[in-house]
């Protein structure tokens, strides 16, 4: 390029001078004769006197010399580039760790490309779609048996078909190239990375090359030296290993459910009910199939079967056997067979966590790197147990002796610990803390176990129940053998002398062997950032519309959903019944139902088989309450309720019931029960602006549809004693 520019700089002034002289002579001629030159004279234009042609000859010579020089320069430049390229290829194969025989092979091919004509490109084999190859590998045929160790390329299988990603043309070599199946490890020429020009381009023709695959034959007797092997493995083997590691992960799932809890299972069952051929994939971080959580803090602790911890089967309050799992393993199909099953099915991928969502491509990425595409997706990730900050900061020894109760493994761990230690302290006075306290307290006498429950309120479930009912509940828990510590605010937790020391804000010090933190749930919203989902700043969880949809093709159900209640405003509920109903509705909407969420979910808690309650709506002890109670009978217990409904998970029957108008009692009710009396059974109404927004049914069962209708109506009631008659609490 620089030579061409120098020649042009020398010739250009002469050409411009000649052209200028011609133009000046033409102008003079026009002025002299007073007319334009004829066309025939233009061909005889001269820069000299009239009749002369010497200047025109010089002009033609200069232009011709310029063209000739340009052609010579282009030819020499192309030839020089080709020589430099051949030298570069030879230098590459002569680098350290390359065998001398490979260098000779390259030299012979380069020499052959100069001496022998290039044949027409021949397509020897159609490219096969395989994992991406980042190195183009070319094999050569030797005319004589190989007597020196050859370089061994790292290949995943003895038989290799190398897909060349650059354009390669077969060259003629002294011996004919025969395409054969290689059954022994093949000795190959050094691999050339894509960042460099491929070696095979040395023999390219000047015409546009055709992509081909070169397969060479190497005599089987060729010795292969292990010491001469290339230190870096071929990148082509990496996709093969990755595919093997993810062989149990389907690439696509029409319905993808993230989370393996109650909401996901309810959604799967709903999807299959509306679309019998649907293929549903549940991805759960746990190693268990979908199961119900309420028995973990209730019935399982009261089982007489020593194997209940392993089998996770329990007796309900009515004595019937039941498993904690929704369905046996035979109900599900294998994830690898999900796409092959004729009529679809439900598959569960356990031990995997979704860590990233690509909502534009409709894909998710798992913790092991696998990717799954979907058409419709449900997020039902639930939540993780909260912990006290003072415990988080206390160190490893304290954390090893702390249980955050949520999963099956937590139940098994705590059940084992209760048999090994002398004291357990439960921090928290809500539903979970009170249930675990009663369960462990009933075992305390047989195991010689001290059970302590502490909370900052003035009584058990003090944030839910009115003060008089909370105090009565506290006495009930004490009778189970639990040491209750009220108004307890934990200031510090430390480990000293093989004991945990819990120091309270008022200076009290409690020693214990193990701590159970039951202080609430934090919704899992880790996918919000990658999926671009909105998280509610007040209640937590993903904000969804009335159809439980967070955005196109994505729904949310269960504990992680923050939904809008048309009667009670925006809410987030952490109970079994809400998981069942919201999961079921989300599944219907994923199949095109487009139904709004109108349901008022309920929850229940049992303090053993004799005392239990059900609640609906907003139950907050800070609201004004009105309680109507009556004397309980033998049938007013959780045990009797399960005998009547046939299930210990009462929401399964309650949510299907429809509220009807019941005839109010005609007999005069007895006077209201005073605070010091035994609260056998009753109804507690929670008011906001004189409208009932929440109801607790205390030892009153199978009446939830009536409570749901009262809240839905949203009317003001002058006398709630008359409303309480709808629940027939005064019947014997």
Automatic annotation (TrEMBL):
Record domain FAD/NAD(P)-binding: where: 256-582
Protein name: Apoptosis-inducing factor 1, mitochondrial
UniProt-annotated stretches for the region Disordered: 223-247
Cofactors required: FAD
Pfam families for the chain: AIF_C, Pyr_redox_2
Keyword Plastid assigned: no
Purpose of the protein: Functions both as NADH oxidoreductase and as regulator of apoptosis. In response to apoptotic stimuli, it is released from the mitochondrion intermembrane space into the cytosol and to the nucleus, where it functions as a proapoptotic factor in a caspase-independent pathway. Release into the cytoplasm is mediated upon binding to poly-ADP-ribose chains. The soluble form (AIFsol) found in the nucleus induces 'parthanatos' i.e. caspase-independent fragmentation of chromosomal DNA. Binds to DNA in a sequence-independent manner.
């Amino acid at each position: 390029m620089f030579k061409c520019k120098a020649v042009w700089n020398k010739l250009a002034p002469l050409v411009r001078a000649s052209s200028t002289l011609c133009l000046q002579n033409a102008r003079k001629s026009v002025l002299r004769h007073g007319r334009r030159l004829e066309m025939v004279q233009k061909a005889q234009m001269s820069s000299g006197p009239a009749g002369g042609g010497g200047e025109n000859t010089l002009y033609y010579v200069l232009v011709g010399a310029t063209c000739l020089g340009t052609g010579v320069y282009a030819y020499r430049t192309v030839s020089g580039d080709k020589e430099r390229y051949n030298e570069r290829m030879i230098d590459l194969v002569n680098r350290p760790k390359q065998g001398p025989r490979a260098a000779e092979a390259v030299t012979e091919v380069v020499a052959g490309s100069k001496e022998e004509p290039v044949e027409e490109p021949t397509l020897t084999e159609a490219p096969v779609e395989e994992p991406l190859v980042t190195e183009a590998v070319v094999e050569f045929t030797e005319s004589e048996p190989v007597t020196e160790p050859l370089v061994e390329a790292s290949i995943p299988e003895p038989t290799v078909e190398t897909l060349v990603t650059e354009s390669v043309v077969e060259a003629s070599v002294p011996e004919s190239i025969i395409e054969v199946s290689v059954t022994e490890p093949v000795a190959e020429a050094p691999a050339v990375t894509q960042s460099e020009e491929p070696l095979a381009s040395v023999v390219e023709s000047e015409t546009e090359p055709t992509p081909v695959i070169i397969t060479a034959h190497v005599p089987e007797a060729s010795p292969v030296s292990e010491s001469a092997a290339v230190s870096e493995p071929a990148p082509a083997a990496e996709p093969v290993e990755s595919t093997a590691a993810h062989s149990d992960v389907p690439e696509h799932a029409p319905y993808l459910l993230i989370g393996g809890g109650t909401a996901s299972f309810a959604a799967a069952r709903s999807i299959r009910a509306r679309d019998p051929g649907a293929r549903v994939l549940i991805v759960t971080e746990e190693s268990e199939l979908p199961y119900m959580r309420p028995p973990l803090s209730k019935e399982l602790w009261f089982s007489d079967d020593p194997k209940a911890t392993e089998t996770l089967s329990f007796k309900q309050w009515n004595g019937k056997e039941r498993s904690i799992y929704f369905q046996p393993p035979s109900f599900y199909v294998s994830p690898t067979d999900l796409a092959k099953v004729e009529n679809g099915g439900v598959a569960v991928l356990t031990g995997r966590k979704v860590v990233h969502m690509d909502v534009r491509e409709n894909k998710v990425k798992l913790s092991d790197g696998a990717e799954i595409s979907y058409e419709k997706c449900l997020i039902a990730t639930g939540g993780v147990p909260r912990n006290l900050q003072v415990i988080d900061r206390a160190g490893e020894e304290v954390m090893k002796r702390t249980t955050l109760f949520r999963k099956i493994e937590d139940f098994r761990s705590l059940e084992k610990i209760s048999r090994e230690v002398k004291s357990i302290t439960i921090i928290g006075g809500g539903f979970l803390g009170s249930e675990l306290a009663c369960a462990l307290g009933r075992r305390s006498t047989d195991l010689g176990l001290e059970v302590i429950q502490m909370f900052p309120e003035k009584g058990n479930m003090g944030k839910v129940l009115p003060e008089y009912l909370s105090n009565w509940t506290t006495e009930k828990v004490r009778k189970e053998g639990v040491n209750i510590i009220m108004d307890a605010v934990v200031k510090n937790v430390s480990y000293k002398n093989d004991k945990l020391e819990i120091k309270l804000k008022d200076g009290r010090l409690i020693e214990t062997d193990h701590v159970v933190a039951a202080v609430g749930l934090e919704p899992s919203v880790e996918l919000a950032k990658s999926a671009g989902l909105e998280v509610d700043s007040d209640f937590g969880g993903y904000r969804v519309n009335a159809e439980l949809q967070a955005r196109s093709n994505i729904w949310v159900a269960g504990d992680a959903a923050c939904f809008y209640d048309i009667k009670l405003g925006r809410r987030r509920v952490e109970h079994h019944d809400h998981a069942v109903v919201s999961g079921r509705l989300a599944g219907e909407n994923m199949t095109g139902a487009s139904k709004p969420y109108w349901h008022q979910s309920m929850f229940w808690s049992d303090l053993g088989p004799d005392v239990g309650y059900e609640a609906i709506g907003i139950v907050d002890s800070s609201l004004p309450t009105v309680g109507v109670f009556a004397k309980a009978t033998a049938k007013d217990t959780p045990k009797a309720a399960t005998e009547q409904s046939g299930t210990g998970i009462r929401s399964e029957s309650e949510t299907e019931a429809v509220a009807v108008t019941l005839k109010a009692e005609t007999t005069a009710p007895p006077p209201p029960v005073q605070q010091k009396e035994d609260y056998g059974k009753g109804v507690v109404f929670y008011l906001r602006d004189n409208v009932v927004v929440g109801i607790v049914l205390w030892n009153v069962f199978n009446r939830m549809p009536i409570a749901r209708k009262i809240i839905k109506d949203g009317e003001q009631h002058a006398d709630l004693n008359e409303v309480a008659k709808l629940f027939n609490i005064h019947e014997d």
